[in-house]
Amino acid sequence: MAKKTVPVSVTFDKDLFKRSVLYNIKTLYRKTLEEATPQQVFQAVAYAIKDAVVDNWMRTQEEYEKQDPKTVYYLSMEFLMGRALGNNIINLQAQKEVKEALDELGLDLNVIEDQEPDAALGNGGLGRLAACFLDSLATLGYAAYGCGIRYRYGMFKQEIRDGYQVEVPDNWLVDGNPFELRRPEYAKIVKFGGYVNVHIDENGRSNFVQEGYQSVKAIPYDLPIVGYGNGIVNTLRIWDAEAVECFQLDSFDKGDYQKAVEQENLARNIVEVLYPNDNHYAGKELRLKQQYFFISASVQEAVSKYMRKHDDIRKFYEKVTFQLNDTHPTVAVAELMRILMDEYYLTWDEAWEVTTKTCAYTNHTIMSEALEKWPIELFSRLLPRVYQIIEEINRRFILKIQEMYPGNQEKIRKMAIIYDGQVKMAHLAIAAGYSVNGVARLHTEILKHQELKDFYEMMPEKFNNKTNGITQRRFLLHANPLLADWVTAHVGNDWITDLPKINKLKVFADDEKSQQEFMNIKYQNKVRLAKYILEHNGIEVDPRSIFDVQVKRLHEYKRQLLNILHVMYLYNQLKDNPDMDFYPRTFIFGAKAAAGYYNAKMTIKLINSVADVVNNDPAINGKIKVVFIENYRVSNAEIIFAAADVSEQISTASKEASGTGNMKFMLNGALTLGTMDGANVEIVEEVGKENAFIFGLSSDEVINYENNGGYDPTEIFNNDPDIRRVLMQLINGTYAPGDPDRFRTLYNSLLNTLSTAKADTYFILKDFRSYAEAQKKVEAAYRDEKGWARSAILNVACSGKFTSDRTIQEYVDDIWHLDKVVLPKK
Ligand code: Z15
């Protein structure tokens, strides 16, 4: 076990770094190291690391200038980056030197890292995927920009008060962000509102100009994205909004004054806060403003950067590609058309050719409530010129539909971009994109044959699958140093940049010594999490119990309710039969609910209420513990994945497009307890179904029920006394003493015997028995310690496919066709 994962860096200057830290504390705070607060020490260390990063950043960008590689712009409303310091140190391969240097200064890197606020510019899976992609793009050496919004407030901080979620603003910039760089020289103007005027010029051309608009200045802030060990540093560019100019106090014109105030307010509001909805579209005007704001600025910048080096805008797509992360940035299609026609005077056909060779679209969900449909009234008022262009795209698209399906009104109804007074953003993205991809094999198949069937039949060549992935640098190397070192000691450290190499671990799965070492590491990670839980929740948990974990956004389709109903069922069994054979289990939850999502919030309250009862009942002897981890986010996720035995991936089959938490658990040696949904299907394919616990309806069965009006849960309620007992406990005050109606809405969502509304649309009762049986198998399997260790090691060994390096290489090969960049030796 001599080999350590941390390589010796040849370029990182330890002494320079130490001096830099002390100098920073002096010049930033006029203090000595001893006088500085922990936050100030963090800032000083972060600036010292930034110094090393900036050298590589400049070198990389210079090299891009020289080599002029094709560049991807990953356009996304969300980048869920988490903390930067630890990740940057790892990717600089400077961990050993930094740790030594800090040690010599009497500082502890872990404590310093803990001072950094998470950059939580995202909700969940979609935003974290974008962050993993940036890591992989830089590590693989591809020229890439992430383009997004510099929200003043990111994802809210979750506090649990009296068992309820309370949202607290996330003022992540209070102490300043040491890694960001303000770039006012690249500011752009973005225009909203007004009306479109046509000017005929001297050549008889019609020029469309927006007049009477309000404008906002977009100021970019750049964040470095450090590649692992290759000197590459890419850029995440996030836009801040500023008023265009201070309005004139001597303006006596009331209209102008009013307009100036409105313009200033627009700038103030636009980047104020991230909408905290995951997989749900709320249709708010400000959200559309956010979308157009960052897209207009990003597209303007991409075009002007291209024109600084090239003269023919008609060949834009040879050097630039836009990836649309869901429909949120789809207005880019029309904005690019606008710039090409109105500012570069391309004809419609020329502009359309460039646009359709530049834009590609990723679909991340089939949940209908997530599909963006903007009322045309709102859209045309806010973006009059862009709307005009979309109308023309729609007109021509309908002509194409008619050409292919003459006289088929049904096709137009289902496929038009503008229909029923709404602009359908997914239809726009598909009509204008050269690629449409889903995020796991099953998801892409459902898109092709169900949700987007008509589009697939019309344009099959556009459709492709890109199964999601995660970065092993953050989720193993950084999150789980004990396991990372163990893996390296056994198979070398190639896995850090070539995850499939981790497959060499397979031969150790049956080796008893390896099994013991593995379980010992898992135990230590469970102790680390138990300590975190005690400090943050005041709950004592036994690291020898099974750590059964469900962490993800709270959503009905993800079925946290199924999990907690099953805990209630187990508790009933234990109460009836205190001496039954029962392996101690700790059920761990972590989840934020969208602020306005009532059932989701009540599920959090239910979990905490069950926790209160179960954790404090001496009759069950601590055999079940329920823990709700407050404020689940990237930084504590890293501790949680490392400590998990069981990975709960229990969405209603067909609803979870991919999932990425499932992959993070697998990489850390947890066994999946899940449905055949999203990427679970591919996980099981890699590791073998004997090393996972699969249950529940298949996606085909779910879709079948849905196409035939659902199923009737009352039958299950009537015939299964255990389930009936659990459901009655939702409404008899067992978990809400004095307020038996508290969970009535959850009960109604499952049964709803009173109204005609559909009940149990997520098949919780239908899948309950199958889930409970799978859980029994989990318990039996865990009792066989060697067998469990074997399966856990195999999960790690078979996780190679799920690196985002693989995903990105597939995007490059099949969609983007980027040039690989290698930096010359210094
Ligand atoms: C989001 O986090 C996801 C999809 C969405 O449409 C929105 Cl708005 C947010 C998630 C999927 O639910 C999840 O299955 C997937 O793994 C993730 O995107 C990344 O593709």
UniProtKB/TrEMBL annotation:
CDD domains membership: GT35_Glycogen_Phosphorylase
Pfam families, per the entry: Phosphorylase
Reaction(s) catalysed by this chain's protein: [(1->4)-alpha-D-glucosyl](n) + phosphate = [(1->4)-alpha-D-glucosyl](n-1) + alpha-D-glucose 1-phosphate
Assigned keywords, A-Z: Carbohydrate metabolism, Glycosyltransferase, Pyridoxal phosphate, Transferase
EC nos: 2.4.1.1
Highest taxon listed in the record's lineage: Bacteria
Reported cofactor(s): pyridoxal 5'-phosphate
Keyword Oxidoreductase: no
EC category: transferase
Keyword Metal-binding: no
Function: Allosteric enzyme that catalyzes the rate-limiting step in glycogen catabolism, the phosphorolytic cleavage of glycogen to produce glucose-1-phosphate, and plays a central role in maintaining cellular and organismal glucose homeostasis.
Family that this chain belongs to: Belongs to the glycogen phosphorylase family.
PANTHER family recorded: GLYCOGEN PHOSPHORYLASE, GLYCOGEN PHOSPHORYLASE, LIVER FORM
Protein name: Alpha-1,4 glucan phosphorylase
Lineage: Bacteria, Bacillati, Bacillota, Clostridia, Lachnospirales
